[in-house]
Amino acid sequence: MQRLAEPHPGPVPFSVEFYPPRDEQAEARLWRAVRIFERMGPAFVSMTYGAGGSTRDRTLRIVGQLARETTLLPVAHLTAVGHSVDELRAMVGGFADQGITNILALRGDPPGDPLGEWIKHPDGLEYAEQLVRLVQELGDFNVGVASFPEGHHRAPDLDHDTRYLVSKLRAGAQYSITQMFFDVDDFLRLRDRVVAADPEQGAKPLIPGIMPITSLASVRRMVELSGSVLPANIDKRLAAAAGGGPDEDREAVRAVGIDLATQMAQRLIAEGVPCLHFCSLNFAKATSEVLERLGMNVMAA
Protein backbone atom coordinates (compact mmCIF):
# COMPACT_ATOMS: atom_id res chain seq x y z
CA MET A 1 0.00 0.00 0.00
CA GLN A 2 1.49 3.28 -1.17
CA ARG A 3 0.34 5.21 1.91
CA LEU A 4 2.77 3.26 4.08
CA ALA A 5 5.69 4.84 2.24
CA GLU A 6 4.47 8.42 2.67
CA PRO A 7 5.75 10.77 5.43
CA HIS A 8 4.20 10.07 8.82
CA PRO A 9 4.58 11.16 12.43
CA GLY A 10 6.54 8.81 14.64
CA PRO A 11 8.72 5.78 13.90
CA VAL A 12 6.12 3.95 11.74
CA PRO A 13 2.70 4.75 10.24
CA PHE A 14 -0.41 3.65 12.06
CA SER A 15 -3.91 2.74 10.94
CA VAL A 16 -7.25 2.24 12.64
CA GLU A 17 -10.12 -0.24 12.39
CA PHE A 18 -13.74 0.87 12.85
CA TYR A 19 -16.91 -1.20 12.81
CA PRO A 20 -20.41 -0.24 11.63
CA PRO A 21 -22.49 1.19 14.50
CA ARG A 22 -25.76 -0.46 15.48
CA ASP A 23 -27.83 2.65 16.25
CA GLU A 24 -27.77 6.45 16.10
CA GLN A 25 -26.04 6.85 19.46
CA ALA A 26 -23.27 4.45 18.45
CA GLU A 27 -22.94 6.21 15.11
CA ALA A 28 -22.48 9.56 16.86
CA ARG A 29 -19.69 7.98 18.94
CA LEU A 30 -18.07 6.60 15.80
CA TRP A 31 -17.99 10.02 14.16
CA ARG A 32 -16.49 11.60 17.28
CA ALA A 33 -13.69 9.04 17.06
CA VAL A 34 -13.34 9.60 13.32
CA ARG A 35 -12.79 13.33 13.79
CA ILE A 36 -10.20 12.76 16.51
CA PHE A 37 -8.31 10.21 14.42
CA GLU A 38 -8.52 12.47 11.38
CA ARG A 39 -6.33 15.00 13.20
CA MET A 40 -3.80 12.26 14.02
CA GLY A 41 -3.02 11.42 10.41
CA PRO A 42 -3.42 7.62 10.13
CA ALA A 43 -2.16 5.98 6.94
CA PHE A 44 -5.65 4.52 6.44
CA VAL A 45 -8.77 3.47 8.31
CA SER A 46 -10.72 0.27 7.73
CA MET A 47 -14.41 -0.46 8.19
CA THR A 48 -15.42 -4.00 9.11
CA TYR A 49 -18.22 -6.02 7.59
CA GLY A 50 -20.63 -8.00 9.74
CA ALA A 51 -20.82 -11.80 9.65
CA GLY A 52 -22.78 -12.97 6.63
CA GLY A 53 -23.00 -9.41 5.30
CA SER A 54 -25.23 -8.35 8.19
CA THR A 55 -23.87 -4.80 8.08
CA ARG A 56 -23.52 -4.50 4.30
CA ASP A 57 -25.62 -1.37 3.85
CA ARG A 58 -24.09 0.46 6.84
CA THR A 59 -20.59 -0.50 5.76
CA LEU A 60 -21.20 0.83 2.25
CA ARG A 61 -22.80 4.05 3.49
CA ILE A 62 -20.23 4.90 6.15
CA VAL A 63 -17.21 4.04 4.02
CA GLY A 64 -18.64 6.36 1.37
CA GLN A 65 -19.04 9.11 3.93
CA LEU A 66 -15.46 8.61 5.11
CA ALA A 67 -14.29 9.03 1.52
CA ARG A 68 -16.42 12.11 0.80
CA GLU A 69 -16.51 13.94 4.11
CA THR A 70 -13.06 13.36 5.65
CA THR A 71 -9.41 13.43 4.67
CA LEU A 72 -9.00 9.79 5.71
CA LEU A 73 -8.21 6.95 3.32
CA PRO A 74 -10.92 4.30 3.86
CA VAL A 75 -10.39 0.58 3.32
CA ALA A 76 -13.63 -1.36 2.99
CA HIS A 77 -13.92 -4.90 4.29
CA LEU A 78 -15.68 -7.33 1.92
CA THR A 79 -16.56 -10.91 2.84
CA ALA A 80 -17.45 -13.87 0.63
CA VAL A 81 -19.66 -15.64 3.16
CA GLY A 82 -23.39 -15.55 2.41
CA HIS A 83 -23.06 -13.78 -0.94
CA SER A 84 -23.42 -14.81 -4.55
CA VAL A 85 -20.81 -13.69 -7.06
CA ASP A 86 -23.36 -11.25 -8.50
CA GLU A 87 -23.89 -9.70 -5.07
CA LEU A 88 -20.15 -9.41 -4.54
CA ARG A 89 -19.76 -7.74 -7.92
CA ALA A 90 -22.51 -5.29 -6.96
CA MET A 91 -20.79 -4.49 -3.67
CA VAL A 92 -17.47 -3.84 -5.38
CA GLY A 93 -19.27 -1.65 -7.90
CA GLY A 94 -20.93 0.24 -5.07
CA PHE A 95 -17.56 0.92 -3.49
CA ALA A 96 -16.13 2.05 -6.82
CA ASP A 97 -19.07 4.40 -7.39
CA GLN A 98 -18.14 6.17 -4.15
CA GLY A 99 -14.47 6.41 -5.01
CA ILE A 100 -13.40 3.51 -2.78
CA THR A 101 -10.44 1.74 -4.36
CA ASN A 102 -9.05 -0.02 -1.28
CA ILE A 103 -10.69 -3.30 -0.25
CA LEU A 104 -9.81 -5.92 2.37
CA ALA A 105 -10.96 -9.23 0.85
CA LEU A 106 -12.05 -11.76 3.48
CA ARG A 107 -13.65 -15.17 3.47
CA GLY A 108 -15.70 -14.07 6.48
CA ASP A 109 -17.36 -15.78 9.44
CA PRO A 110 -20.74 -17.54 9.37
CA PRO A 111 -23.61 -15.44 10.76
CA GLY A 112 -24.81 -16.34 14.24
CA ASP A 113 -21.81 -18.44 15.25
CA PRO A 114 -18.43 -17.24 13.96
CA LEU A 115 -16.90 -20.61 14.90
CA GLY A 116 -19.74 -22.61 13.33
CA GLU A 117 -19.78 -24.54 10.08
CA TRP A 118 -18.74 -22.48 7.05
CA ILE A 119 -21.19 -23.11 4.21
CA LYS A 120 -20.49 -21.78 0.75
CA HIS A 121 -23.25 -19.80 -0.96
CA PRO A 122 -24.49 -21.96 -3.87
CA ASP A 123 -23.60 -19.18 -6.31
CA GLY A 124 -20.72 -17.79 -4.28
CA LEU A 125 -17.03 -18.30 -3.60
CA GLU A 126 -15.26 -20.80 -1.39
CA TYR A 127 -12.02 -19.01 -0.54
CA ALA A 128 -10.66 -15.51 0.04
CA GLU A 129 -8.13 -16.14 -2.75
CA GLN A 130 -11.05 -16.29 -5.20
CA LEU A 131 -12.44 -13.04 -3.82
CA VAL A 132 -9.06 -11.35 -4.31
CA ARG A 133 -9.08 -12.42 -7.96
CA LEU A 134 -12.68 -11.26 -8.43
CA VAL A 135 -11.97 -7.79 -7.03
CA GLN A 136 -8.85 -7.47 -9.16
CA GLU A 137 -10.83 -8.39 -12.27
CA LEU A 138 -13.38 -5.65 -11.63
CA GLY A 139 -11.07 -2.64 -11.68
CA ASP A 140 -7.96 -0.94 -10.41
CA PHE A 141 -8.23 -1.79 -6.71
CA ASN A 142 -5.68 -2.06 -3.93
CA VAL A 143 -6.52 -5.33 -2.22
CA GLY A 144 -5.47 -6.54 1.21
CA VAL A 145 -6.22 -9.80 3.03
CA ALA A 146 -6.32 -11.13 6.58
CA SER A 147 -3.63 -13.17 8.28
CA PHE A 148 -3.50 -15.08 11.54
CA PRO A 149 -0.40 -15.14 13.76
CA GLU A 150 -1.72 -18.11 15.72
CA GLY A 151 -3.11 -19.79 12.61
CA HIS A 152 -6.74 -19.58 11.49
CA HIS A 153 -8.95 -21.75 13.64
CA ARG A 154 -10.15 -23.66 10.56
CA ALA A 155 -6.64 -24.42 9.30
CA PRO A 156 -5.43 -27.92 10.28
CA ASP A 157 -1.96 -26.62 11.14
CA LEU A 158 0.35 -23.62 10.75
CA ASP A 159 1.87 -24.90 7.50
CA HIS A 160 -1.56 -25.06 5.86
CA ASP A 161 -2.41 -21.63 7.24
CA THR A 162 0.78 -20.19 5.76
CA ARG A 163 0.03 -21.73 2.36
CA TYR A 164 -3.45 -20.16 2.39
CA LEU A 165 -1.96 -16.75 3.12
CA VAL A 166 0.69 -17.09 0.42
CA SER A 167 -1.98 -18.14 -2.09
CA LYS A 168 -3.97 -14.99 -1.32
CA LEU A 169 -0.89 -12.84 -1.82
CA ARG A 170 -0.04 -14.62 -5.07
CA ALA A 171 -3.60 -13.99 -6.26
CA GLY A 172 -2.83 -10.28 -6.20
CA ALA A 173 -3.25 -9.10 -2.61
CA GLN A 174 -0.74 -6.34 -1.93
CA TYR A 175 -0.60 -6.56 1.86
CA SER A 176 -2.03 -8.38 4.86
CA ILE A 177 -3.47 -7.24 8.18
CA THR A 178 -3.38 -9.73 11.03
CA GLN A 179 -6.12 -10.68 13.39
CA MET A 180 -5.50 -9.16 16.81
CA PHE A 181 -2.92 -11.10 18.82
CA PHE A 182 -1.12 -10.74 22.14
CA ASP A 183 2.15 -12.62 21.65
CA VAL A 184 4.63 -10.82 19.40
CA ASP A 185 6.54 -14.06 18.85
CA ASP A 186 3.48 -15.50 17.08
CA PHE A 187 3.58 -12.58 14.64
CA LEU A 188 7.31 -12.92 14.04
CA ARG A 189 7.02 -16.66 13.40
CA LEU A 190 4.22 -16.00 10.89
CA ARG A 191 6.40 -13.46 9.08
CA ASP A 192 9.29 -15.93 8.97
CA ARG A 193 7.03 -18.70 7.61
CA VAL A 194 5.75 -16.53 4.77
CA VAL A 195 9.25 -15.41 3.80
CA ALA A 196 10.45 -19.03 3.84
CA ALA A 197 7.49 -20.19 1.74
CA ASP A 198 7.78 -17.43 -0.86
CA PRO A 199 10.32 -14.62 -0.45
CA GLU A 200 8.57 -12.46 -3.06
CA GLN A 201 5.25 -12.61 -1.22
CA GLY A 202 7.04 -12.33 2.11
CA ALA A 203 8.30 -8.92 1.04
CA LYS A 204 4.74 -7.56 0.98
CA PRO A 205 3.64 -5.59 4.08
CA LEU A 206 2.44 -7.75 6.97
CA ILE A 207 0.64 -5.36 9.29
CA PRO A 208 0.09 -6.37 12.94
CA GLY A 209 -3.36 -5.89 14.47
CA ILE A 210 -3.22 -4.52 18.03
CA MET A 211 -6.11 -3.99 20.44
CA PRO A 212 -5.47 -1.97 23.60
CA ILE A 213 -7.44 -3.93 26.20
CA THR A 214 -9.89 -1.89 28.27
CA SER A 215 -12.09 -4.69 29.66
CA LEU A 216 -11.17 -8.21 30.71
CA ALA A 217 -14.65 -9.59 30.10
CA SER A 218 -14.78 -8.03 26.63
CA VAL A 219 -11.39 -9.26 25.50
CA ARG A 220 -12.10 -12.78 26.75
CA ARG A 221 -15.32 -12.81 24.74
CA MET A 222 -13.65 -11.40 21.61
CA VAL A 223 -10.85 -13.95 21.82
CA GLU A 224 -13.38 -16.75 22.24
CA LEU A 225 -15.37 -15.66 19.19
CA SER A 226 -12.29 -15.22 17.03
CA GLY A 227 -10.76 -18.58 17.79
CA SER A 228 -7.70 -16.76 19.11
CA VAL A 229 -5.89 -17.17 22.43
CA LEU A 230 -5.24 -14.82 25.34
CA PRO A 231 -1.89 -15.99 26.75
CA ALA A 232 -2.16 -17.29 30.31
CA ASN A 233 0.34 -14.80 31.71
CA ILE A 234 -1.59 -11.87 30.24
CA ASP A 235 -4.94 -13.24 31.41
CA LYS A 236 -3.49 -13.65 34.90
CA ARG A 237 -2.15 -10.09 34.93
CA LEU A 238 -5.47 -8.68 33.75
CA ALA A 239 -7.43 -10.80 36.23
CA ALA A 240 -5.30 -9.50 39.09
CA ALA A 241 -6.05 -5.94 37.96
CA ALA A 242 -9.76 -6.70 37.59
CA GLY A 243 -10.03 -7.78 41.23
CA GLY A 244 -12.29 -10.35 42.83
CA GLY A 245 -15.49 -8.33 43.08
CA PRO A 246 -18.67 -8.76 41.04
CA ASP A 247 -17.58 -5.93 38.74
CA GLU A 248 -14.08 -5.70 37.32
CA ASP A 249 -11.92 -2.69 38.10
CA ARG A 250 -12.06 -1.22 34.60
CA GLU A 251 -9.55 1.53 35.27
CA ALA A 252 -6.96 -0.93 36.56
CA VAL A 253 -7.58 -3.32 33.66
CA ARG A 254 -7.35 -0.44 31.22
CA ALA A 255 -4.00 0.66 32.67
CA VAL A 256 -2.59 -2.83 32.20
CA GLY A 257 -4.06 -3.02 28.71
CA ILE A 258 -2.41 0.25 27.65
CA ASP A 259 0.92 -0.97 29.06
CA LEU A 260 0.65 -4.26 27.18
CA ALA A 261 -0.27 -2.61 23.87
CA THR A 262 2.59 -0.14 24.23
CA GLN A 263 5.11 -2.88 24.98
CA MET A 264 3.90 -4.94 22.02
CA ALA A 265 4.09 -1.92 19.71
CA GLN A 266 7.60 -1.02 20.86
CA ARG A 267 8.87 -4.50 20.12
CA LEU A 268 7.07 -4.65 16.76
CA ILE A 269 8.59 -1.32 15.75
CA ALA A 270 12.02 -2.62 16.72
CA GLU A 271 11.36 -5.68 14.55
CA GLY A 272 10.70 -3.47 11.53
CA VAL A 273 6.95 -3.73 10.97
CA PRO A 274 5.61 -1.43 8.22
CA CYS A 275 2.61 -0.14 10.19
CA LEU A 276 0.65 -0.62 13.43
CA HIS A 277 -3.06 -1.34 12.93
CA PHE A 278 -5.22 -0.55 15.98
CA CYS A 279 -8.60 -2.16 16.65
CA SER A 280 -10.31 0.92 18.08
CA LEU A 281 -13.80 -0.40 18.93
CA ASN A 282 -14.87 3.08 17.71
CA PHE A 283 -13.08 4.84 20.56
CA ALA A 284 -10.03 7.06 20.15
CA LYS A 285 -8.66 7.51 23.68
CA ALA A 286 -6.88 4.20 24.29
CA THR A 287 -5.17 4.18 20.90
CA SER A 288 -4.12 7.81 21.24
CA GLU A 289 -2.56 7.06 24.65
CA VAL A 290 -0.52 4.22 23.17
CA LEU A 291 0.60 6.42 20.27
CA GLU A 292 1.67 9.16 22.69
CA ARG A 293 3.75 6.68 24.68
CA LEU A 294 5.41 5.59 21.45
CA GLY A 295 6.53 9.16 20.86
CA MET A 296 4.20 9.79 17.96
CA ASN A 297 3.25 13.47 18.01
CA VAL A 298 0.04 12.50 16.27
CA MET A 299 -2.13 15.43 17.27
CA ALA A 300 0.32 17.79 15.61
CA ALA A 301 0.25 15.87 12.34
From TrEMBL:
Keywords: FAD, Flavoprotein, Oxidoreductase. The keyword Ion transport does not apply. It catalyses: (6S)-5-methyl-5,6,7,8-tetrahydrofolate + NAD(+) = (6R)-5,10-methylene-5,6,7,8-tetrahydrofolate + NADH + H(+). Pathway: One-carbon metabolism; tetrahydrofolate interconversion. GO terms for cellular component: cytosol. One of its GO terms (molecular function) is methylenetetrahydrofolate reductase (NADH) activity. It comes from the Bacteria. The keyword Oxidoreductase applies. GO terms for biological process: methionine biosynthetic process; tetrahydrofolate interconversion. Its cofactor is FAD. Transmembrane segments: none annotated. Belongs to the methylenetetrahydrofolate reductase family. This is Methylenetetrahydrofolate reductase. It comes from Williamsia limnetica.
